[in-house]
Amino acid sequence: MADIKKIEDELWEAADELRANSKLTSQQYCMPVLGLIFLRYAWGRFKRADAQIDAERALIEGRKPPKEPQDYTAKGAMFIPEEARYDYLSNLPAQADIGRAVNAAMDAIARLNPSLAGVLPNTYTELGNELLASVIRIFNNPALDEEGDDIIGRIYEYFLGKFAPAVASDDGVFFTPKSLVRMIMNVIEPVRGTMLDPACGSGGMFVSASDYVREQGGNPAQSMMFYGQEKVDYNAKLCLMNMAVHGMQGNIKSGDEANSFYHDAHALESTCDYVAANPPFNVDKVRWSAAVDAGRLPLGAPKENKKHEVSTSGANYLWINYFYSYLNDHGRAGFVMASSATDSNAERAQRRALVEASAVDVMLYVGNNFFYTKSLPCTLWFFDKDKPQAIRDKVLFIDAQRYHTAVSTTLNEWTPWQLKNLTAIVWLYRGEQEKYRELLGAYKARCAELAVLFAGEAAKKLSNVRSVKDFAAARAAMLAAIEVQKANAKAEVEALPKRQQKKHREELAAVTAQLEAAATEVGEAVWLVEKFGEGEYADVPGLCKVASKKDIQGDAPADKSSWSLTPGAYVGVPPVEDDGVDFHERMGEIQEELARLQTESNELMATITRNFQELGL
To answer: How many helices (H) and strands (E) does the chain have?
Structure first.
């Protein structure tokens, strides 16, 4: 995440150079800049897929089959003709008409990808050769070759905020962080069928679903159909670009006909296998009569206010209605929603209808600072219209507000291991112990890999993790080894001449950071097995609770807390750990310390005053 922020800053410098040195408005230069990022990111994925295809063909005896565009699609990349490859563009001679060459590159890609017709920018001749060449050079960043993140979506949101903050705010446009999107995929488990995102933005849900299918050994181009609605045209174009760069095709509609409050643009009611979305929260000014006429309200129509509009809480439940209505009889939905929606009083009857229909599967509360440009908390909702009989009348509640990794003071995320741990809770709730045991196996294998970083007892314990108890012993040995490493590093640095100390200190700090990261990974295994052992689900106070319909109904129909879907209302708070300190004794010590500090402060003030007097001040 920190590396991506660095990339964003570097790329923005290039975009800012374009703004400062061209006569284009923000609306005119936004898409050309994002188009260059698209080309560079597509080139990185193409190179990686090309290397994989070459490696596979090297194993074939005799004549090698020719490479086809579908070979790249199967690898999650887009085939790029030679004239559109970034290395070709970045190596053009200074006297070349670079603007015309980039336009030709966009046209060549559009010819091979009909979904991009009219989407890719083609105004590069307006930028001027020298300026365009400079931006192309700066954008040729090796970091865009990396796997593992929806980089184009991330950078798009970052740039959109820079280009047009008012647009981003008015349209509720903000990027859904990858860890939230990935958690949605882990729970709804898309493999084959139709997926809809009726608020698709730059297409992050589709990209993550595609990644999930490939990880399960499938080919999303063959097994999935993706449909999206996005009323903001810029976003829809970025969605199509984002999908194309990942070797995907989709039917994305934009403009007024794609405003989900008033239109079912693809006529998909009751037909979807999967729905995934991060809709804009708390929208106002939705016309009540138009929204009701548009239908897709199986849970009931929202209330109309004096302005003949839907309230903000009612607008949230319009989305919830849509997600539920689009599912077929075995469909699953996962979506992000404002946390206030889980217990808003006006919509209690709609929550009751969902619970009584046995449609609510999992409710997962997410704390603050997960969104890239917003600090609001949220809840992930999950529907399943075909839950197993054993849990048909139950709901899993997870409160994950205390479980995350702080990237900075304003940004949190779930690491890959934390995502697996949260997903493991869902597996156990569903009775899928085998998946849990596979995760334990992955942790054990990881411990064996990390053993090479350590020596002595830590290496021995990491190499011999056999039972769940061994994880804690291995981590304790790792932490002890790290403390020894720090002490040795300090002594080693102090023994060097001063001119050599800074560089060597930085080198040893990097080693220590690597060891601490390893200990953190094993710590995630400890976190999991301390709660669920070899693989038996159990309610964990402050973390998770499986509640029945009766629990959710409450004690009385008139009870305002009845039919709440707020995870915290069920999981409670974690037990307070006894730190072994006597409260009254410690408070006495603190009081004595404060008195001593107050005396020292008074003496220091008297000395300062006396010195001023002696100076005649």
So the answer is: 23, 13
